[in-house]
């Protein structure tokens, strides 16, 4: 996993979601965990949290890859318990947050899950079942000959030489 470079709020790139959340600190006081208000920013690769929306340096950040987000009503016992969610990854730190409202907590979870689904779709599965569903853009009309990709490509290669001259259009006045 790549390290996330600290960035000012304005330079975090394609921002997918941002706003104030309460983040539970790692240090536990005598009275329990401390919840601190943080400006949080989610972009395509990372989650950043700042002291406020004008901060130059993040208080922390982590790569969102391999994490999961879920609502977590057990984090608080007060009236805000329905606003809690956590971002977890096995073997790594769990980040716990409280949103301003239950709907806002759901939006954060949905956005993180959408992003994770998008990141995981960049990896191509190698299951045998998936191979049957491979799209064949080269010869989509002739589904009878899709048993072997090599056969389809070889058939098209013979037609390619005849069509190659038709690829370029000569514009009037240009040679």
Automatic annotation (TrEMBL):
Record's signal peptide: none
Domain of life: Eukaryota
Record-linked InterPro entries: PH-like_dom_sf, PH_domain, SKAP_fam
Segments forming a coiled coil: none
Record CDD domains: PH_Skap1
SMART domains: PH (SM00233)
Location in the cell: Cell membrane; Cytoplasm; Nucleus
Polar residues bias (residue ranges): 142-157
Keyword Membrane: yes
PH domain segment(s): 14-117
Composition skew (Acidic residues), residue ranges: 128-140
Residue span of region Disordered: 128-164
One GO cellular component, as annotated: nucleus
Keywords from the named record: Cell membrane, Cytoplasm, Membrane, Nucleus, Phosphoprotein
Protein name: SKAP1 protein
Source species: Chloroceryle aenea (American pygmy kingfisher)
Gene: Skap1
């Amino acid at each position: 996993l790549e390290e996330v470079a600290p960035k000012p709020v304005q330079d975090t790139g394609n921002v997918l979601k941002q706003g104030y959340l309460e983040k539970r600190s790692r240090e536990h006081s005598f009275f329990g965990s401390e919840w601190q208000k943080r400006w949080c920013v989610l972009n395509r690769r990372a989650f950043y949290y700042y002291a406020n929306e004008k901060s130059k340096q993040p208080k922390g950040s982590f790569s969102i890859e391999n994490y999961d987000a879920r609502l977590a009503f057990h984090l608080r016992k007060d009236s805000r318990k329905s606003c809690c969610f956590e971002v977890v990854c096995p073997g790594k730190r769990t980040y716990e947050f409280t949103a301003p409202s239950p709907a806002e907590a759901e939006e954060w979870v949905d956005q993180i899950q959408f992003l994770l689904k998008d990141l995981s779709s960049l990896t191509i599965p190698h299951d045998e079942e998936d191979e049957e569903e491979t799209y064949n853009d080269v010869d989509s009309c002739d589904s009878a000959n899709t048993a072997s990709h090599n056969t389809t490509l070889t058939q098209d290669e013979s037609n390619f030489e005849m069509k190659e001259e038709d690829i370029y259009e000569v514009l009037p006045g240009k040679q």
